[in-house]
Prior knowledge:
Blueprint: E1 9-13, E2 17-22, H1 33-48, E3 52-56, E4 61-63, H2 68-72, H3 76-81, H4 83-92, E5 98-102, E6 105-107, H5 109-115, E7 119-122, E8 127-129, H6 143-151, H7 153-162, E9 165-167, H8 168-173, E10 179-180, H9 186-199, H10 202-213, H11 221-231, H12 234-248
Parallel strand pairs: 2-3, 3-5, 4-6, 5-7, 6-8, 7-10
Antiparallel strand pairs: 1-2, 8-9
Helix pairs in contact: 1-4, 6-7, 10-11
Amino acid sequence: MPVPNELPLVVERRADRVVATLSRPAVRNAIDQRTIDALHDVCAELERDPRTLILTGTDGVFASGADIAQLRERGAADARRGINTRAFQRVRDLPMPVIAAIDGYALGGGAELAYAADIRIGTPRLQIGNPETGLGIIAAAGATWRLREIVGDGRASEMLLTGRILDAATAVEWGLVSSLFEPGDLLAAAHALADRIARNDPLATRHTKTALLAPRAAHPEIDLELQAELFESPEKRRRMTAFLDRRGR
């Protein structure tokens, strides 16, 4: 049994990023109500003070899914509350990029949390997918719309209707994760991505994410409005002047 006072989410804070580690190893990081509450707390912090978020797991597991013991007792009213859905949507909507560093199992709700990230990297022992229909439910925390945007309609349908779990090589081939690293190198690789993000202009990064999340009908107008704001920013002028000065040497 989990230790009553264990932290379901261990949070490390740096000036330009936050690392949130799912930490319920006794139940393979199953996502329970306390984990969801902790995710909301992290999101509230990053909405106030935008930084890159790195999500990762422990002991060779990202998250084995929602906590089945809790899920079994939930009824129609709980489904309509969207307990996991609302938290994962909040992760998706964070102002700065979210990186999911996935080792081992990312199943069910764990997979749906990973789908909410902007960038997903994994290890060769990655196993990711949604077996919900085998448990008599659907993947209702984002997979039915978010997964098809990532891998396409046909592949999303195959995964969700059959409960297929992808191995690491297939996840890369299908574009579900972008790169694979050995388990011992995974977090360092996530930090390397965060380092690259940190070298860029934070406002330009935020506006890029805003444009990426906008519906197709909002383009190109949203891009032009965001660019108009950036064209007037002192940071744009500073960075372009520095670029021209370096080129002129």
